[in-house]
Amino acid sequence: MRKAILLMEHAMPTRCCDMTRRLVRPQAPRTAWLTGPKTMSIAKPWTSKAAAALLLLVAGCTGVSAPRSMSVAAGRVVIEGPAGYCIDTNGSRDTTAGTFVLLGSCDSISGVSTQPRPQAPAVLTAAVSAGTSGAGIAGSEKRLARYFESRAGRAALSRSGKARTVTILGHHDGDGAFFLHLSDSSARPDPTVSWRVLFDLNGHIVTLSVVGLPGRPISARHSEALLRAFIAQVRATSPHPAGGKAAG
User: Fold this and answer.
1) Angle at CA 78, nearest 5°, toward 59 and 171?
2) How far apart are CA 235 and CA 246, in angstroms?
3) DSSP classification of residue 212
4) Is 145 within 8 Å of 31 (Cβ atoms)?
5) pLDDT 10s digit of each residue in the chain, 248 long?
6) d(C-alpha 109, C-alpha 126), whole Å
């Protein structure tokens, strides 16, 4: 069956500080639909400049609104992180082309030291497709695995767009979701290790990611646990069809 997953790349601006504004130039979302049996791609919100800006943000930029949740995709999906994580509204977008949401420590984003702080500091992101039109993740797990192990798939995951920078550390599926563990050396000297998960939710494809901070590594076990808490929170807070859980 032909499957297609939206590929989006956002360089997210933030008014948090002048350095961040210099690092990130606002860009329109770039979308591409791949066709044929290898039509797999993911929401890809990272660029090397955006990653640097996000780390500045989480490190302690202040004066930004920091709500716990954000309703996106015309109210069909609600993005909310685990305890201690808040939304950076200046670094997030919800448009007809798709959605990108940035989350970090509530105290760092708000600049208020009494706000909650997560036990495992990290950068969290969420990307939501504009709509799936019947295409989705469920039932496509094996095809996804083949795609992300291919050169084209690794290039799609790379912040630089170069397959050689990405190493797939592992992947598995379960509960209607596809989990991906990877390392990207685009931002030298320290490769970025991240966990991502793709799943269907109320007619949209959602991609969540967990990325550790420089100098404050998070173990694979803890980052996967944080990702699972993230997906559980998004599913729990998103609208549920009458008499059931949030639909895939």
Assistant:
1) 70
2) 6
3) P
4) no
5) 233 333 333 323 333 332 222 222 233 333 322 222 333 444 455 444 445 445 545 455 555 678 999 999 999 999 999 999 999 998 999 998 999 999 999 998 988 888 888 988 899 999 999 875 555 898 899 999 999 999 999 999 998 999 999 999 999 999 999 999 999 998 766 778 899 999 999 999 999 999 988 777 788 899 999 999 999 999 999 998 765 667 66
6) 17
Quote the DSSP letter at residue 246: P
Return the CATH architecture of domain 7-237.
3-Layer(aba) Sandwich (3.40)
Query: Is cis: bond before 67, omega within 30 of 0?
Result: no
Alpha carbons 157 and 7: distance in angstroms, whole number? 10
Q: For residues 192 and 142, give the distance between their C-alpha atoms in angstroms, rounded to a whole number.
A: 25
Residue 76 near residue 200, CB atoms below 8 Å: no
Q: How far is CA 175 from the centre of its chain?
A: 19
